[in-house]
Amino acid sequence: MIEEAKKLAEKYLDEKTYQHSERVARYTEQNRMIPEHLRERCIALAWIHDVWEDSDCGTAEILALDATRRMVKYMNYITHGKNEESYEDYIISIKNAQTIYPEVWWVKLADMKDHLSQRDTLTERLKNKYSKALAILL
């Protein structure tokens, strides 16, 4: 599943977003707090967490990654559409689904870690946005 997710990221993401997904996948893989039975799906989700937001990848390709079809549900939670709920409501929905879809929560934490560690692109506005989101998630 991980290699297939990585291939989707390579296929659909531009270089900058691909590098972000690669770092998020690495942070996820290195996180020993993630239970072993969730690791594969978490790492796969880390690779593709921005695919729906930043490309024209369809549902069929996501479904092909996971026979349980859970990956599509994860993508629905981890994707924040520009015309949908506020960012705070989006983060609250991830927090509320933590017991049902912990993979989304783990990957979102890794995603925020990466955004907060990118000093060359971290504006004061983004720093505040992600700091508030972390406070909600944690």
Overview of the molecule:
There is one protein chain. By secondary structure, the chain is an all-alpha fold. The protein has helices spanning 2-12, 15-30, 36-48, 51-54, 59-63, 70-78, 87-96, 102-117, 124-137. The longest helix is centred in the first third of the chain and has 16 residues, at 15-30. It starts with a helix and ends with a helix.
Mean pLDDT: 90
Percent of residues in beta strands?
under 5%
**Regions with little confidence, pLDDT below 50 for 5+ residues:** none
The number of distinct helices, counting runs of at least 4 residues, comes to 9
The total beta strand count reads 0
Distance between the termini: 28 Å
Q: What structural class is derived from the secondary structure elements?
A: mainly alpha
> Rg to the nearest angstrom?
14 Å
Helical percent range? over 70%
| Element-level helix/strand string | HHHHHHHHH
Query: Mind describing the biggest β-sheet?
Result: none
Task: Name some characteristics of this structure.
single chain; 138 residues; mainly alpha; globular
